[in-house]
Amino acid sequence: MPNPHVNFKALWHGLLSGKVLHMLTTAEGIMTQTDRLNGDGLQEVFATNLFGHFMLVRQLQALLCGNEKPSRLIWTSSSNARESAFSLSDYQHAKGQESYSSSKYATDLTSVVLNRKFNGQQSGAFLNAQGLYSSVVCPGLVMSNMTYRILPIFLWKLLMPIMWLIRFFAKTYTLTPYNGAEAHVWLFKQKPEYLDSLVKYHSCTSGLGRCYVEPRKMDVDEDTAEKFYQKLLELEEQTLEKYRDLLD
């Protein structure tokens, strides 16, 4: 999330609307970023949050698939992952200002389609299982060095007591990395073949500090996921071709 900025005008309008809780838990419409190209000629946020990991999974595919015990991928997504920020025609989000949201929605799409390809989960059926299971988690709102860059430190110190109070109403305000890891740890203990591939598992913390996991259905279109997967494969081929001499 490079150079994150708050749209204070949108924030003010949100505070006056009936969607204030939704806005505070998803940052919808109030968070913008200025992205840039990396050394490979790719949009940096897309490459960092998704494409690098996708290429790693593809390179390890032979090791991950067809084993006696299932392999699993756990992607860290976000409640800020929104379809409205993503476009198949601009899947690297070169033209927008919500690259983080776009990359996290792209992560959700990727997880869904990997399940269809490698463990046969498709419309409730299990076909041609290869034993690779993919899941998505959201750590909630965690205060980190990335979060602290959004506003000056003194403002965060003033806001923190309010944020602890908000947690009575917004359970995804996990605030600490320990609480944010709840869904990751819980998911690792589950049998992946029994998990719903269309669900995102959210780390939640009650107002009194109890940590738990809440599954929520993802707003993803499986046909869009398939089309996006094909675009990722094309981009992977172009990238590998670009560095063929180094790889050889």
TrEMBL record:
InterPro entries per the UniProt record, alphabetical: 3KSR/17beta-HSD, NAD(P)-bd_dom_sf
UniProt GO cellular component terms: endoplasmic reticulum membrane
GO terms of biological process kind: cholesterol biosynthetic process
UniProt-listed Gene3D superfamilies: NAD(P)-binding Rossmann-like Domain
Domain of life: Eukaryota
Keywords: Signal
Single GO term (MF): 3-beta-hydroxysteroid 3-dehydrogenase (NADP+) activity
Signal sequence, start to end: 1-27
Protein name: Hydroxysteroid 17-beta dehydrogenase 7
Species this protein is from: Cyanistes caeruleus
